[in-house]
Design goal:
463 residues, 15 helices, binds iron/sulfur cluster, five-stranded parallel sheet, 19 strands
């Protein structure tokens, strides 16, 4: 019987089985940021413990930083305190920090792969739910909480429950205007936001095989929104080409040796899966969420569901919060804000797709539109291509790298009950900084189309 990538990585990183039924796993790479670390470092200090492997620990700043005025101290004292604590902790414990003045700074899930820190066959941990993003390169990447950040800092290991593996096979060709974001929204819609609980999602099939690493990042990023603990794509030539020449990737002969090993970590052809799901890519439309979790989405040509008995009031609650009417078309829903950004969709290819839609067009008068690159490197590359100009000329604001309006722990936030067309990953109540703010998740190209139309529009009409 063959092994899955998850099983291979799990076996290689097992420190010991625990009496709880969990496994103590060694963590190859620990990525940290300002939000989930201050208390973790305080706990180390309280017990007089150092960081076990500072050379396997890297820090960036992303969640709280303003994307407009980055002068210190920040206007928000809490944000300033968090970043100051990170600076102090990295200094004291010998951890490299890519701060605002570094060309390597950016959203933690954008810079890890971009710098070649994220590699196939690794175990990765980070104090952020969307750590599953790194699975795009064939890693087992775990989002963790503050007490687990402490555990990894102190021991470079984690206690993890066993996981089943569901292989999600997407075959066929996506129609123009349908992107990786639509694929993962479709998967979550079909399997449910809790469908992946207790599972790793392995993505494969001809559609996934053809995807770039950026696109695979988008798919793996939202695994957690489907309840999966991790999501991954088996490493292949696209993975190796992506990693070649990146600052932390092996060099010369070491790279070739690494490729041989990375290739061996992919799931075996005869691997045994707990479950296999098949999806025809040709049936996927551009998708838009209408509700308050990422599973509540419809194709852009479809109608918003009607509340019916037996759904425990979930549809009615969502419609009430969103101010939408069951049975109405999602297309034409008025928006106030458009946001292209977040660790789901802030990479160069995302910005290119959004820019392609807005080029030569104007953002609707009543819409505030933000384009926020995921990292300094993405910002520079986008500016070299003139994408910043395309955005500015259309009426988008072009910002500095950061999480921005995804979570709104910074000045970028919704006001009152504004409706936001967003390329981010969560549409929970209050997610974008206003308790009554409303989020419609969609692809960056769909956000761009909505920004121009001033309402939900079908990007297929614009491509
Ligand atoms: S962009 Fe959003 S989901 Fe991603 S790391 Fe930042 S806050 Fe978390």
């Amino acid at each position: 019987m063959g092994k899955t990538l998850l099983k291979k990585i799990w076996d290689l990183h097992t420190v010991r089985p625990l009496s709880t039924g969990q496994t103590q796993l060694f963590i190859g790479l620990h990525l940290i940021h300002e939000v989930t670390t201050p208390q973790a470092f305080d706990m180390l200090r309280a017990r007089d413990i150092g960081v076990a492997f500072p050379q396997r620990t890297f820090a960036t700043t992303d969640h709280v930083i303003p994307t407009l005025d980055q002068a210190r101290p920040f206007a928000d004292p809490l944000a300033e305190a968090m970043l100051s604590a990170l600076e102090q902790n990295c200094d004291e414990f010998g951890i490299p920090l890519w701060n605002l003045d570094s060309a390597r700074q950016g959203i933690v899930h954008v810079i890890g792969p971009e710098l070649g820190l994220t590699q196939p066959g690794m175990t990765i941990a980070c104090g952020d739910s969307h750590t599953s993003t790194h699975g795009a390169l064939g890693a087992v990447a775990l989002g963790i909480g503050t007490s687990q950040v402490r555990d990894v800092l102190a021991s470079q290991s984690l206690a993890i429950d066993p996981l089943k593996v569901r292989r999600i096979v997407v075959n066929g060709t996506l129609v123009p205007g349908v992107f990786a974001k639509d694929v993962i929204l479709e998967i979550i819609n079909r399997l449910g936001v809790k469908g992946g609980v207790g599972h790793a999602y392995e993505y494969g099939g001809t559609t996934i095989d053809r995807m770039s690493i950026d696109e695979r990042h988008t798919v793996c990023n939202m695994s957690i929104e489907g309840g999966a603990r991790v999501g991954y794509v088996n490493p292949d030539d696209i993975t190796f080409d992506y990693l070649r020449g990146r600052p932390f990737a092996p060099k010369g002969d070491a790279f070739d040796r690494a490729v041989n090993w990375w290739r061996s970590m992919a799931s075996d052809a005869a691997a045994d899966y707990d479950d296999v799901i098949e999806i025809d890519a040709g049936t996927i439309e551009p998708r838009v969420t209408w509700g308050i979790n990422p599973g509540q989405s419809v194709g852009v040509s479809e109608r918003i569901p009607t509340a019916v008995g037996g759904d425990n009031g979930a549809v009615a609650e969502a419609l009430d919060f969103m101010g939408l009417t069951g049975g109405a078309p999602i297309k034409g829903t008025r928006i106030d804000v458009a946001f292209v950004g977040s660790c789901t969709n802030s990479r160069l290819s995302d910005l290119r797709e959004a820019a392609r839609v807005v080029k030569g067009q104007r953002v609707a008068r009543h819409v505030t539109a933000l384009a926020v690159p995921g990292s300094q490197a993405v910002r520079v590359a986008a500016e070299q291509e003139g994408l910043d100009q395309v955005f500015r000329e259309s009426g988008f604001e072009w910002r500095g790298a950061g999480c921005s309006m995804c979570l709104a722990m910074n000045p970028d936030r919704l006001d009152g009950d504004q409706v936001c067309a967003s390329s981010s990953n969560r549409n929970f109540k209050g997610r974008q900084g206003s308790s009554t703010g409303r989020t419609l998740l969609m692809s960056p190209a769909m956000v761009a189309a909505a920004a121009v139309a001033g309402e939900v529009a079908d990007v297929r009409d614009a491509v």
